[in-house]
Task: structure prediction
Amino acid sequence: MLVAVEPVAVEKDVASDMPRLELNGTSIDYRDAGDGPAVVLLHGFTGSRLDWFDHVGWLSERNRVVTYDHRGHGRSAHSGPYTRRQFSADLSTLVEHLGLDEVTLVGHSMGGVVAQDYAVLHPGRIRRLILVDTWPGNALDLPRSVARLATASSYVARAVGMERLLQIRAGLDRWLPQTGAGRSVANERPEVPVMMEANFVAMDPRCYASVMKIAADRTSRSVLDDLNTLDTDIHVISGAGDDLLRPSYDEYRRDLIGASFTLIDNAGHAPHIETPDEFRSVIESILKDDEQPSSQRLEIER
Result:
């Protein structure tokens, strides 16, 4: 059940003269570009809508592309609650406000969880679900050392803020994917670590702590059974080197019926940033399937 939705109003952000949406007790920064079938891009934890900078341009040539910052992230307001139900409600209100009757959702990491929750609640609005290096909503089975670090970092974030936490975590490369690919991206594309650092320090420390708690919540259940009831195309994409969420990819392959699965070589947790050309190729291939009815879905691995 969704939380109550307050009246919606659009205002202009004074600094950028770009639209913002007042909804559900907060202010959401979003962009809306292009015409055609609607595609909503949902960024991951500690990210922002800027994570999709390699893809908005080409996607908007044939699609209406919407990007936005989750509450507590990027340029959106720092106001809770920071819960799965609330993140999903924010997406629902944005979709309603923009008049999007049917959408393709592309969700990365935390954004993938939001996309799945929304799809389960609003199956009639989903044209296609594309899940990128994410998990099905149950508690992540983290190595003990990682779980301890996550818990400690949540306390540090609330105590001293995100900028100090970034310094304590020994620099930005910790937040790039968990493989050498991330370090390679930092060397070859210097704008990437700058963007990621800005995203990280812009985040509300309370949101950081709350999402960490969500990821570790042992009472959360997987949405895989719910996804299997949907009459829609579902595509699961993962970087081959995403050690942290590779078990979740394997879980999707085992339990998600009729979906397509793609592993992208030389990528870790963020293939849309690390290997943008390969990621684009995969997405273009998926979007070309618009003429294929959902009932004809086949399980494939590219």
User: Anything to note?
Assistant: The longest helix spans residues 144-160. The CA atoms of residues 146 and 231 lie 37 Å apart. The domain at 9-137+222-290 is CATH 3.40.50.1820 (Rossmann fold). Confidence is low (pLDDT under 50) at residues 1-16, 171-180, 291-302.
